[in-house]
Inverse folding.
């Protein structure tokens, strides 16, 4: 789990994914000699801070978003949410501005109308526009790993592990998912127009709920706020059944992923969200069962071999 621990500590809130991009590219360059197939690595202004890895003759693309939730410094010590982070006076935030490193507290102020104002607690003023993220606190037991930003550093970890044995396929590392997307449309255009790929798997993390539990396998989502094409999800569920890998079916009314943005693109993509469930969502304490992580990777490996 050392790679996952490293990923959870990288500063990459939505809109500032550069550090994560550089880490992924360096990791691939350092380890590619042990990969089954050497990928073509596509970066540059045409896809901004995203990364595309192209292996062999691809038919399926895996999308994993690199960004995290966090906070932006406004005026008079106020913080504005990036995405939907949980807030609590006990949370510690870290970042960096022109004056140096920041390790700040959080203060929540409620008015008579129950409106909440979030402020940082620090010994000096922080530059406007600075991004603050949860301070990592890695915890690992026999069965669980727990830290901030399992969503979606675990999805990135899954994609990097998949890359080691992938012979045919595409992996897209995307930006801005936590604030509604923005990169997936041009990634879809790029891979559809060049290689005709129109099937996708979304390597992301979902929730523990009354219907999706820790330790029962990776979650295959029938729907959340987006509704993928049923025939495609049926095909994936049948393959999962054939594989013998533990999985559970998710059906939710809310939440979303890169799949939602893929469906809104002008390209005929099928997509399915497949990810391990966590609890303490969007907090510094996101917790995932190791058996679900194992099942997630195994199912992606199986699907990339058998989906056509």
């Amino acid at each position: 789990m050392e790679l996952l621990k490293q990923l959870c500590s990288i500063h990459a809130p939505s809109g500032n994914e550069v550090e994560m991009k550089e880490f992924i590219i360096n990791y691939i360059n350092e380890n590619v000699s042990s990969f089954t197939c050497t990928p073509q690595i596509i970066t540059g202004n045409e896809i901004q801070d995203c990364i595309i890895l192209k292996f062999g003759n691809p038919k399926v693309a895996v999308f994993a978003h690199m960004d995290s939730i966090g906070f932006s410094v406004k005026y008079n010590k106020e913080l504005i949410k990036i995405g939907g982070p949980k807030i609590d006076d006990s949370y510690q935030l870290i970042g960096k501005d022109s004056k140096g490193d920041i390790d700040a507290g959080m203060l929540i102020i409620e008015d008579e109308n129950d409106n909440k104002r979030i402020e940082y607690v620090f010994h000096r003023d922080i530059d406007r526009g600075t991004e603050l993220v949860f301070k990592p606190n890695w915890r690992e037991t026999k069965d669980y790993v727990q830290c901030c930003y399992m969503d979606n550093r675990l999805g990135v970890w899954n994609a990097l592990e998949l890359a080691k044995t992938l012979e045919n396929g595409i992996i897209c590392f995307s930006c801005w998912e936590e604030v509604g997307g923005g990169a997936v449309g041009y990634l879809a255009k790029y891979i559809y127009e060049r290689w005709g790929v129109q099937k996708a798997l979304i390597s992301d993390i979902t929730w523990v709920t009354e219907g999706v539990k820790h330790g029962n396998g990776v979650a295959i989502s029938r729907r959340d706020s987006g509704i993928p094409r049923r025939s495609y999800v049926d095909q994936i569920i049948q393959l999962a059944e054939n594989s013998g890998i533990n999985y559970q079916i998710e059906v939710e009314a809310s939440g979303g992923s890169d799949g939602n943005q893929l469906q809104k693109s002008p390209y005929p993509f099928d997509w399915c969200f497949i990810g391990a469930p966590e609890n303490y969502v969007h907090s510094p304490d996101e917790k995932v069962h190791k058996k679900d992580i194992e099942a997630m990777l195994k199912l992606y490996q199986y699907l990339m071999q058998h989906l056509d």
User: Anything to note?
Assistant: The helical segments are 2-8, 18-31, 150-165, 184-195, 230-243, 258-264, 290-306. The two ends are 31 Å apart (CA to CA).
